[in-house]
Write a structure and sequence with these properties.
Layout lengths: L1 H32 L15 E4 L3 E4 L4 E4 L2 E4 L18 E5 L2 H4 L9 H10 L10 E4 L7 H15 L3 E7 L10 E5 L5 E6 L2 E3 L5 E3 L8 H18 L21 H21 L3 E7 L2 H4 L21 H12 L3 E4 L1 H6 L16 H16 L4
Parallel strand pairs: 5-6, 5-7, 7-12, 12-13
Antiparallel strand pairs: 1-2, 3-4, 8-9, 10-11
Helix pairs in contact: 3-10, 4-6
Length: 373
């Protein structure tokens, strides 16, 4: 019996040594592969950020950086758009939003704001004195940060029109990430993001500590999480916005998230009304809503009618806009008209390809210059 126990213990020891050796090799591999272990790999991996006491993070002003195969820059306000001429009488259009507004995966002159500026400069639209388009999009921002930025910087930016771009995929659920401080009127004045921070070298990093300071263990833990999500056939961070109230898998906090979102959207409308500024909400669809051709980008997910009512976020957002008398532009039917002729989304992620940014820019200008359309 002692001999059997000894053999078992020896085999267990060999197994443990083998596992430790494999982890050590994997650890070395990851540390050689990953230059910035704390960087969140789902956002722009550039040292372009600074810590902001109210917003959590913001762009560094007046910097140039390489992105999407060319030079990009931020102006004096940290915006991915042209420098503004002091004292210029030209009307100002301010775009608020996240990575779609920033221009994920495209060059500086291929963003929504850049195409808007080109159209205005070409005199395609008759605006007396021209107009300046300001791109205040920041990766990962929620409506709370967008509202803080708007109210805090309004007197500096002095916009005549404000465009809020809402991506239906995750703008609602990103509220989960932050703890918010509000003033006596309910306006957010500061947020503490529970996941995201700015590293000392200007990257976006994660609050999550690396277990045992091991990249290998952290990577395996992430893979386990992804595997469990695939077993359920639902990625828990994005897709719940496509579930109706009858879906048994609908997370219990969704109703509260919609209520909070509407309250802040109404606050934004109230603030801009007090400043007599034109306000437009633009509802940006997810690729799977536009065409079934994009479903193949997500081989481990299902988008059937029993699982997802794909127009739910648009319906809810339009109801919110109607209740609060907010001018609203739903891009989904516009994109669906010509999706067979244009690849509006790339095959790598849900963000716009260049034609998607072009169509969005034209649709926004048509709407704000013809508000009754």
């Amino acid at each position: 019996m002692k001999k059997i126990v000894k053999i078992i213990l020896i085999n267990v020891a060999i197994f443990c040594v083998a596992i430790i050796a494999l982890l050590a090799v994997y650890e070395v591999y990851l540390r050689l592969k990953i230059n910035n272990p704390g960087t969140i790999k789902t956002v722009i991996e550039k040292p372009i950020y600074r810590t902001d006491p109210d917003l959590g993070w913001a762009h560094q002003p007046n910097i140039t950086f390489d992105y999407a195969g060319s030079k990009s820059f931020f102006n004096e306000f940290g915006q991915r758009s042209n420098h503004l001429t002091p004292g210029s009488p030209a009307p100002r259009i301010l775009l608020l939003g996240d990575s779609f507004t920033f221009g994920m995966n495209v060059k500086q002159d291929e963003t929504i704001s850049a195409f808007m500026q080109k159209n205005l400069d070409s005199k395609k639209y008759e605006i007396s004195g021209g107009s300046d388009v300001m791109n205040a999009g920041v990766v990962g921002y929620s409506i709370r940060q967008e509202l803080i930025h708007l109210t805090r910087e309004f007197d500096t930016l002095k916009p005549d029109t404000v465009i809020l771009n809402i991506f239906v995929g995750n703008d609602l659920t990103e509220q989960r990430r932050s703890e918010v401080e509000r003033d006596k009127n309910g306006f957010p004045v500061g947020i503490k993001d529970k996941e995201v921070l700015v590293t000392p070298d200007g990257y976006l990093g994660s609050h999550d500590a690396i277990p045992f300071h091991s990249l290998a263990i952290a990577d395996l833990a992430q893979r386990k999480k992804q595997f469990l999500m695939k077993l359920q056939k639902y990625p828990g961070y994005i897709w719940p916005v496509f579930m109706d109230e009858k879906n048994p898998l609908l997370p219990p906090d969704m109703a509260s998230l919609w209520t909070q979102y509407e309250a802040d959207l109404a606050r934004m409308k109230s603030f801009l009304d007090s400043k007599k500024v034109q306000f437009l909400v633009v509802i940006i669809p997810m690729d799977v809503q536009v065409s079934r051709n994009y479903w193949q980008k997500y081989p481990d997910q299902i988008f059937g009618e029993k699982e997802f009512e794909l127009k739910v976020p648009q319906q809810k957002l339009k109801e919110i806009c109607n209740r609060n008398k907010i001018n609203c532009l739903d891009l989904l039917p516009i994109f669906q008209k010509n999706t067979d002729q244009q690849l509006y989304f790339p095959q790598i992620d849900p963000h716009f390809a260049i034609p998607g940014n072009q169509l969005t820019a034209e649709s926004i200008l048509n709407k704000i210059l013809n508000p009754k359309s």
